[in-house]
Each structure stands twice: as C-alpha cells, then as structure tokens.
Amino acid sequence: MKKNYSLLLLLFVTVGFSQIPSGYYNTATGTGYTLKTQLYNIIKGHTDNGYAGLYTTYQTSDVDNFYENDGTVLDMYSENPSGTDPYNYSTGSTQRCGNYSAEGDCYNREHIIPQSVFNEQSPMVADAHFITPTDGKVNGMRSNYPHGTVSSATYTSQNGSKLGSSSVSGYSGTVFEPVNEFKGDIARMYFYFATRYENTVAGYTYAMFDGSGNKVFTTAFLNILLAWNAQDPVSAREIARNNAIYARQNNRNPYIDHPEYINQIWGGTAPSGDTQAPTAPTSLASTATTASSISVSWNASTDNVGVTGYDVYVNSVLKTTVSGITATITGLTASTSYSIYVKAKDAAGNISSSSNIVSPTTNASGGTGGTATELLFSEYVEGSGNNKALEIANNTGSSVSLSTYTVKKQTNGDGSWSTGLVLNGTLTSGSKFTIVNSSMAASCYATTSANISTTATELTFNGNDAVGLFKNGVLIDIIGTFNGGTANFAADVTLRRKSTVTSPSTTFNISSQWDSFSADTCSNLGAKKAKVESIETEEETFTGLNGLVLYPNPTNGNFNIYFDIINSPYSIEIISILGQKVFEKSNITDSLSTINNLPKGIYIVRINSGSETFNKKIIIN
C-alpha cells in the first residue's frame, strides 16, 4: 500500500517548529491600548538583518508549501489559491531584475506600509513581518496606495488583486485590494506595524493613519482591517512565516500567535457618540429561486462610520444576517410567494430604514419548472478574463450516467465543433454538475463548488462561441448560435435557465429561455453540487474500501468522503497541519460521509479500515 510519507513528514516537521517560545507573552496581561504597549515592549528591539537580508529570509519565510506545494516563492499578488498560478518564481533567482514591464518578469520586495511613510529608515525598511516578496509589476501598480475595498477597478492582476476607486467610507482616493485569501494576512501585518513602531508611528503621514500612537488607524480603514482579520483567519502559511521570521529577527507578530489580541485592543466597542443610521439598501432583487430557497441581492448602504451587516426579513420576520450584499434564504415551501426586505446596521447598533420589498415565488416541488425530460444547461458564465463556467442540471427525477455526455465548443462562430470534453460519473436527481475554467479569478472561484476544473478549449469560450451539450454524439442542448459568425450572443454576462424551461433545446433563444445577470456573477454556481460516483482514488486501493474519493478538494469548508463498495466498517480522523485532532468518528458503515464547517487550513484526512490506513491532504479555503 502506498503511503503519503511527504505529507506525514510535513505534519511532524511543522508540529516541531511551530511552538511559541515559553513565556514569550507572559507580560501581555492588559486590555485595550495598555495591551498594545505591553506587546510593543515584547517585540521591540528585533535583529535588523538589513534590506538585502530580506531575500535570505524569504528562502524560509515565503515558500509555497501550502498551495501547489512546489517550493516556489509564495507571492500574495500572484498566488491563485484555488487553481493554477499564472506564473512562479524561484527563491534566489528572478529577483531585483529591474524589468517590471509585465507580470512574471521578476519579483522584488513589497512594503505593505510604503517605505516613504517612514522615510526608508531602519529598522522599518528591512522588517520582514510587513515586507513580502511580490511580483515587480503588481508591486509597481500598487505603488503607495492604501489597502482597501475597490469600487471600480482600473487594473486587475492575474490572480485577481485590484487597483481602483475606493469604496471605503469617507475616503475617495485610489486603493489596492488583494484577493480574499490574503486579506487577513495583510490586516495582521498592519496591526503588527502599529504595535512594533508604537513609539514613532504618530509622526507618520499616511491615508490610513490618524496621527495617533494608540489607535493609529482612521476609523474607516480600521473597520476594513478588522473585517479582513475576521473574514480571513490565521492560516498555517502565516504560522510558518511567523516562525521563520522569528528565527531570523528574534521577534514575532503577536496577532498571528494570538489573533484575539486584535479585538481586545481595537475591537468590540461601538464608536463613541455615533447616532447616525446607515442609508437604506436599494435595488433589492431576487436573483435565483428553487423549490425551497430564494437568493437576493441589493446595492450597499453607506454610513458615517461604517456598515457592519444587513438583516434580511422574510414575511416581516428576521431570517438571517449577512456581512455582504447577497443572501440565500433556505427552508422555504415550494410554490409559495414570500415578502422580503433588508435593513443595514452599523457598529453602534443604528438600523437603517427598510429597502424596497420583493415578493418572489419558489419553484414547483420536484425541480426547476417541474420534471425535466433530459439533462440541460442550467447556467453559463462568460465573465472577465478566464471567468468561464457551465452548469448542467438533472431535474429528470432519476439518476443519470454522464458517460454518454460531452460538452463541445465552436470557435469564433465558424468551423466545426471541438473534439469535446467528456463527462463521467453519475448525476443524481436534483443535482447540478459544474465545470469551470481552472484559471478563473479567486474571487469567482471561491464561491463555486466545481466538479471539473480545467483549461480545456471548451472552457475558453467567448461571447460568440456556441457551446453544445451532446448525448451519444448528438446535440441535445445549445448556448449560442452555431455558425453565428462574430456577433456576440452573450458576452460579459451570466445566464441562468428560466424556471419554465424543462427540456433542452438545439435552438438558442436568450429572451425566452434565459435570465441575464451582470458579468462575473458566480454566486449561484454549483448551488446543489452533484454527487459524482464511481471515481477511483489515485493514492491507493483498499480491499475493504473500494473506489475511495474526497471531493471537492480544495473546498470552502464542507467536503465528502465516498466509497463505491464497503466490505467492513471504517473510521475517520482529521488532523490539522499542527498535529491537533479536530474530528473523529468510528464504526461508520455508510458509503458517503459529509464533513461540515472545518475552519480554513490544511488537514490530513486519515481513513482506517481493519489493518489498512489511507492518508490524504484536504485544503479548506
């Protein structure tokens, strides 16, 4: 039996290397800004290895042992956390080459707090805790702009990082927004800087700073950093980076070791004297319905301090609270109309007036528009860059083998169909089979549960490329017009099949068959992902557990463990990358086990059956 020794070795090495020095935080006993000063006294006076020494530090602190696990430079501005990186760098090479005309030329050093803020003075200029290796082109585009949320992007890097106009309340300048995967990392670097340089930061002028040595940040930017810290918790990558920098500098980022310190210092209290309520959310609309759920979206509210969330009401009863501007209400009754409105709230507890009211109706029980006669395309995404996706629905009432189905594309409205992307497995009734371009932006990929992630030609379509679903080589459903020429039938748009459509069609009619949404609307993809059966594991074969597969992997929190055949009970253990057992269940006889709500991180899934053991890595994004 093949053993995954490399994963187990990584597990043991990480456990041995990740201990916080004994007594390091013994004097951190206060709260509020007192705690911050106590932390300053712990981490000040670190070893300064010089500006050139950063490249030596990066050889251990910023190595990709967490995504592709290929030992390349881990760059937050080019790393694709859920797909293939657009390019890679090796430590010790392609650095400081001075040619930053395009992404992928060479990498250099990115000061998360620009070095012009502190006049390039030491030790700030060489402190690796807030200076990271990044692609030179993207670093140059970020320039000295503050980090924040972008309203309208003027530049987007190949991994989805954006530069553009600010949506930060009260700040109208240009900001730079990293991908979601690294927002917490960057926020904790800012909090480190505010603490390590508490004695000098009051003298620094920067858009994000308020001129004080205690709070440091303006309220608007502090709210952004607090939100990013909460949304993107500490990862195994950050822990490893903190350890590696400690080995070089002899100080640590306390907010990686103890993220709870952040709220103890800056969070948890409402802004003093804030009595102004946010504006009401606008343009509330229903974006999707099923027999038991309704999805809605709206335009964001504004507030003098900052909006912290939205309350969604169904039939005048509070149903859910969300931080974004979309929500899905579940557990509803089929063929029923519901009255929905939304209210915004801020940190002081001020509540806005209600949005407009929408009254969508769930679909009839049994699937989209009733029982379908055949599989059909249910969603199409033709977004920016490589944001391309297709979704196939099974509303036939029975499981359908996908072995006779292929997806084909005609290029530029001319010529023959492509060879075709062959599907496999079994699509259960009521499920959807989602195919995405593996190079799609992280912001889009993060909301998607994909069955196939690929760069095959069938997933590189443009707005004038017809896409067809074939059964036994015969076209049964089509998006677009075959031999339609260069005319765009669906460019920069997301299409979802109308609930009234229950049969595939070889004639495309966008107005009667499809509902249209704006470009890069990915939130509904894979809303009910397929259970795909009969897939053999690549790692090893069991006598007692045949056809073992973990899916999806990577995942956003939930995943499945599936076996074709079970001849004996089995047990499941899930172990964090730091060696902590986070889940255990024994004497399982079901062929499908679902694991829910694992925190973000890298884990080892260990399956035991009799004398046999299987180890596999699972990544929770």
Describe the structure.
- With 621 residues, the protein is an alpha+beta fold.
- The chain has 4 domains: 1-27 and 535-621, Immunoglobulins (Immunoglobulin-like, Sandwich), CATH 2.60.40.10; 31-265, no CATH class; 273-365, Sandwich (Immunoglobulin-like); 376-518, Immunoglobulin-like.
- It has 11 helices and 32 strands.
- A 6-stranded mixed sheet has the order 19-18-13-12-22-23.
- Helix 5 (183-196) crosses helix 6.
- The protein is globular and about 70 Å long.
Concise description?
This is Endonuclease. The chain is of the alpha+beta class and 621 residues long.
Distance between the termini: 30 Å
Total of helices: 11
- Beta-strand content estimate: 25-35%
Total strands = 32
Average pLDDT number: 82
The low-confidence runs, each spanning 5 or more residues with pLDDT under 50, are 1-18, 268-272, 366-370, 528-546
Tell me about the biggest sheet? 6 strands, mixed
Strand order in space, largest sheet: 19-18-13-12-22-23
Helix content: 10-25%
Radius of gyration computed on alpha carbons: 26 Å
Structural class designation: alpha+beta
Q: Shape, please?
A: globular
Number of domains: 4
Domain Fibronectin type-III: 280-365
Family: Belongs to the EndA/NucM nuclease family.
Domain LTD: 359-505
InterPro entries: Endonuclease-I, FN3_dom, FN3_sf, His-Me_finger_sf, Ig-like_fold, Lamin_tail_dom, Secre_tail
